[in-house]
Each structure stands twice: as C-alpha cells, then as structure tokens.
Amino acid sequence: MTSDLSSIAKDTLRDCAKYVLFDKSGAILAANYQPQPAELQALSKVLDDRDSAIKNGMTIDGQRYEVHRFHPPLAYGRTMGCAPEASVGAALCMVQQGLSGQLCFGVITYNMPNLSARMVPILQQLCEQHLKAK
C-alpha cells in the first residue's frame, strides 16, 4: 500500500464502512479492511458482463450485495433481506489506465443514511483523480 494513497483514501472515504483500492493483479493500493485475494479477483470481473453481475451480485468481506445499477465503469447496489433502513450499499468503480499500468478498482460499502447518490460520485472522483495513470 502506498502511504499517500492510503491517507487520501482514509480522508476522502471517511463515510464508508469499508473500502479497498486495488489493481487487476490483486495488489492492494489502500484498504481499511483485509480483503481476500479470491474476493478481489471476483470483484475485478463484475463489470465484464451485465447479466452475470445482476445475477451473482458482488461479495465484499463475505457479504453479498445485489447489483441493481450496472453502468460501466460503475456498478452498485445494496444488501437485501432486511429493512431498507438497515441495508448496506456497495459500489465498484473501474479505471482503465490505472497507476500500475493495468486496470484499477475502487470498492466501497456504506451504511445509512449514506446513499449511492452521494457515495458513488465520491468514489468515482477519487478513482479518477488518484487511481488513473498520469
């Protein structure tokens, strides 16, 4: 993990329950939890196919999130099976030309009262400004 990016992510994503920034190889660039390599590999493929994303959702730290918005380079959704006020949101953003010369990803989860309308643009801006190769 790079300390500058870790510091920026910690500040920018302070309203997120969990976050991880990583590249296609699974190298973690910044995170506030310990993601499993297999989970990162699966997350890196979410945007490969809309039908698969909607059907299989995303798994972040062992929790399944239903994908209800699929708009590459973004996919996002929420947990289901509980009261709407208790559901947790999740978003994924992909950067084509990332820092390491390969695809990079940002993934966040967020609790109520935070909604995708606020959190997805925060993630997208962070990814554009700090994960994109310069």
TrEMBL record:
GO terms for molecular function: actin binding. It comes from the Eukaryota. Gene3D superfamilies: Dynein light chain 2a, cytoplasmic (3.30.450.30). InterPro entries: PFN, PFN_sf. It holds the Pfam family Profilin. This is Profilin. It comes from Tetradesmus obliquus.
